Amino acid sequence: MKKISFITISALLFLLCAPLSNQAKAQNRDHILKVYNWADYLDLSLIEEFEAWYKEQTGEDIKVRYSTFDINENMLTQIEVGHEDYDVVCPSEYIIERMLRRGLLQKIDTTDFARTHTPNWLGNVAPFVIEKFQQMAPKDEDKFNLANPSLRVSDYSAGYMGGTTGFLYNTDFVEPEEVETWAALLNEKFQQKIYVKDAFRDVYSVLIQFAKHDDIQNGRTSRDVEASNLSDANIKAVEDILIQARPQIAGWEADFGKERMTQGKAWVNLTWSGDAAWAIDEAAEVGCNLEYVVPREGTNCWFDGWVIPIYARNVRAASYWINFLCQSEVAIRNMDETGYVSVIGTPEVLEGMASEEDYPETVDASYYFGDIVIPSVDEETGDTTWIDSKAAHLNHVLYPNIDVIERSILMHDTADRNEAMLEMWSHVKGNNLNWKMLTFILVVTALILFYFIDKKTRQWRKHRRRQALKLKRNKG
């Protein structure tokens, strides 16, 4: 009876205390912001500055709990399956698209900015990027319950960094015209000298443009149509190209390709512009000459952006975090730290990134900054020069010329064709055995077989000798 009474009382106490505990936990979360981002994708000194800035704006304390992930899908699984309460995360565009369709995002809340007299910097995102993000809006034919063609993606996400996909190449071994086309993957000159980014969506989205180039040029189809067309025929077309390219492919890399290039161990790397920019700078310090090009058939414009998951528990602080990162000076610092290009398209960023000394050639970056001409005053001499967005001295790797953008597409979620794409990728990577590796495997296998056969033979002979001796003793 005492035991039953104890259990009953304990249960009642638990039920009474649980709501109080949960309430206290929720109250504590008002002062905690859980941020989930890619590794090496933020100037970490900004975390403390955000905490101080948030206090200035709202009068309340905030503590950022910052953690990182390395794969989009792992991050998504934690949220979708594990219901992790990250307040703000930074997925890639196709994951943002998937989260929108599956109802896993909530709106960025800007209503408090006016009350705290905080400027709304979300408008600093380049209109070009906002238009690209809008292409991720759920369509009528989507199976998920958030299908709404009038949905404004900018209400649910803000771009962060972006770039293109192309070839990083070593100018000591590769002529520029040899990498002006994706056909470089088939060039026997580059046997075992090419690394390919281990990212099937990126690779598919550029190689399908190569496979369908004639039809695109003749107006029978378009880049956007073909990049979104994950038919069996299209997937097979890309698979065939990659299988033909396998003698040239030394390996598939997630992050080490840029190191291979700076070390001179590879000549060509199918990679992202951000990795290319980092590698070019690093290689220059050791006398290795690298350059980056987007092949003429087309590329993808990829983006990462900040979103607030449906299970976030501090939407207010998350919204302030996104707003904070959209400031021009913050964007410049993050670009300097990460090597990637921010989506912030303000005159301040244009002035901060332009440099005739560092970038003698000009690019037309009006798609990013608008058609503007701004003054730039030299702090030492006081001289004024003018920066024209249509002919700006910018890093062409980070800010490609407008003609590159005009032959680019936005990657989309592979949705129900994901399994077919993964199967294709498995076939391609599984078949990537060069003759040296194949010979090595055959030799090792033969040695192992010889060892076991020889061992069994010796054991059998030893057993026969023992049997013979035993028989001889018995006869004696």
Q: What would your notes on this structure say?
A:
46% of the residues lie in helices and 16% in strands. It has 476 residues and is α/β, with parallel strands linked by helices. Among the domains are: 1-27; 28-160 and 314-336, Periplasmic binding protein-like II (D-Maltodextrin-Binding Protein, domain 2, 3-Layer(aba) Sandwich), CATH 3.40.190.10. The strands form 3 sheets. Strands 4, 5, 6, 7, 8, 9, 10, 11 and 14 form a 9-stranded mixed β-sheet that branches. A hairpin with a 6-residue loop joins β12 (373-377) and β13 (384-388).
Reported for the largest beta sheet, the result is:
9 strands, mixed
Q: What gap, in angstroms, lies between the N and C termini? A: 84 Å
- The name of the CATH architecture of the domain at 28-160 and 314-336 is 3-Layer(aba) Sandwich
Question: Which structural class do the helices and strands define?
Answer: alpha/beta
Rough outline: globular
Count of individual beta strands: 14
- The CATH homologous superfamily of the domain at 28-160 and 314-336 is termed Periplasmic binding protein-like II
Strand content: 15-25%
Helix content: 40-55%
Helix and strand arrangement:
Elements: H1 2-29, E1 32-38, H2 45-58, E2 63-69, H3 72-80, E3 88-89, H4 93-101, E4 105-106, H5 111-115, H6 127-134, E5 157-170, E6 194-197, H7 200-211, H8 213-217, H9 223-228, H10 232-245, E7 249-253, H11 257-262, E8 268-272, H12 273-285, E9 290-293, E10 299-309, H13 315-325, H14 328-338, E11 341-342, H15 347-353, H16 366-369, E12 373-377, E13 384-388, H17 402-406, E14 408-410, H18 418-430, H19 435-475
Parallel strand pairs: 1-2, 1-3, 6-7, 6-8, 10-14
Antiparallel strand pairs: 4-10, 5-8, 5-9, 5-10, 5-11, 12-13
Helix pairs in contact: 7-10, 10-18, 14-15
